[in-house]
Design a protein that fits this description.
single chain; two-stranded antiparallel sheet; Growth Hormone, Chain: A
Length: 402
């Protein structure tokens, strides 16, 4: 790589991480806002639902804009949307503003998971094949985790206010955008922008069963990620009576951050092996997480089991992403990423939406048990779909629309 290529790669990776860092920053503060603004569990679940809805909308209508505008200008636009989200959180005064801020951050994250992720893979063409998919799989969890950790730590142990913190996040996003301005373009502009906004599911040809098996893993594991986003702070306060944003961040990141470790191990497994072992570990650890709260009353064990579950998720998720991308040419990358994350975010959004609509009040432990059942069902379906080896298909510039 020459100097500009390195700058471009760093800028694209930085953009992907900072988008999710900004999106992770509010999560550990939910319990603080819940007390200050009198929010219910249903409202907390709806906050996450608005974020996840924000990701789904651009993944449906706008995943291929960078194929027509170019990767670099599209990435800059997405970063500016993220700035608007950070500014909204700097001015929080009611639950509705939290929901609005999460919606904006969801839009930025949704666009980032297709457009910016495709930009990273484009710019990693001179690196080993596994580098691009590994970064794009681990950057969201790394960003979300560090964002939650940093905000929780600063709010708990320093005098930094939420307003000052989110203003600083907005400035950091602008700095990354300036770096991207000088990055190399990998996708020349071409006509057809309006046609590209027609919703469609984009996959490489011949990947139907592979995608279906991946979808079971994506939906199941990301649903639990949605639960963690909504209720990690509530677990700390309800189950253990601890009012500490940093500990809430630690509980949240104990599930997400180990994804990065699992991502680096995934290339040691064949795709089907990685899916079965990864999701199998995830399911067993989910059961143990429930046991640690219901019967052992141990937050430490809950976090330990969460760490192992996160590693299992990283192994399975990254293997699925790598297998799908290895069959997709450059013209299909943004659309394939869109399909991957539309499936994943949809799997996280729908359970949160259902929980938000349930009448009455429900303990966090009861809600967790429902997610354990969901994971078991998804795992059984994935085992059936992956029973036979997947067809070996070469990378093609073909689109299968569904």
């Amino acid at each position: 790589m020459d100097a500009r290529a390195r700058l471009s790669f760093v800028g694209a990776v930085g953009a992907l991480v900072i988008l999710y860092f900004a999106s992770g920053s509010p999560i550990s503060l939910y319990s603080m806002w819940q007390e200050e603004l009198g929010m219910t569990h249903a409202q907390l679940s709806m906050v996450s639902m608005w974020y996840l809805l924000g990701t789904v909308i651009p993944l449906l209508f706008l995943p291929r804009i960078s194929d027509h505008l170019g990767r670099r200008p599209a990435t800059i636009i997405i970063l500016m949307v993220a700035v608007c989200g950070a500014v909204t959180f700097a001015m929080i005064s009611n639950p509705e503003m939290i929901m609005a801020g999460r919606l904006i951050q969801g839009i930025a994250s949704g666009l980032g998971s297709s457009t910016v992720a495709a930009y990273v893979v484009d710019l990693s063409s001179d690196l080993p094949r596994w580098v691009g998919p590994t970064i794009t799989s681990s950057a969201p969890t790394l960003g979300l985790s560090t964002g939650a950790f940093v905000s929780g730590g600063l709010m708990t142990y320093t005098s930094v206010s939420p307003t000052s913190y989110f203003e600083a996040v907005a400035v950091l996003i602008v700095i990354i955008a300036v770096i991207v301005v000088f990055a190399r373009e990998t996708m020349p502009r071409r006509p057809g922008l309006l046609r590209s906004m027609v919703p469609r599911i984009t996959l490489p040809k011949g990947c139907g069963r592979l995608y279906a098996a991946c979808a079971m893993l994506f939906i199941g594991t990301w649903a639990v990620g949605g639960f963690s986003q909504s209720f990690s702070a509530s677990i700390v306060t309800e189950q253990f009576g601890v009012h500490n944003q940093f500990i809430a961040a630690a509980v949240f990141t104990s599930l997400l951050l180990p994804n990065v470790v699992g991502s680096f191990f995934s290339n040691r497994f064949e795709t089907r092996q990685a899916q079965r072992w990864g999701m199998g570990i995830f399911l067993v650890m989910m059961v143990m997480m429930y046991v640690s709260l219901a019967y052992l009353d141990s937050l430490l064990l809950f976090c330990v089991f969460s760490v192992v579950a996160g590693i299992g998720q990283g192994i399975g998720f990254t293997a699925g992403v790598t297998a799908l991308l290895s069959r997709a040419g450059k013209g299909l990358r943004a659309g394939t990423f869109s399909t991957i994350y539309l499936t994943s975010y949809g799997g996280a959004a729908i359970p949160n939406f259902v929980v938000g609509l349930l009448p009455g009040t429900h303990a966090v432990l009861d809600i967790l048990s429902w997610y354990v059942i969901l994971i078991a069902v998804m795992y059984a379906a994935m085992l059936v779909l992956s029973a036979k080896p997947y067809p070996e298909v070469q990378s093609e510039e073909l689109i299968a629309d569904a």
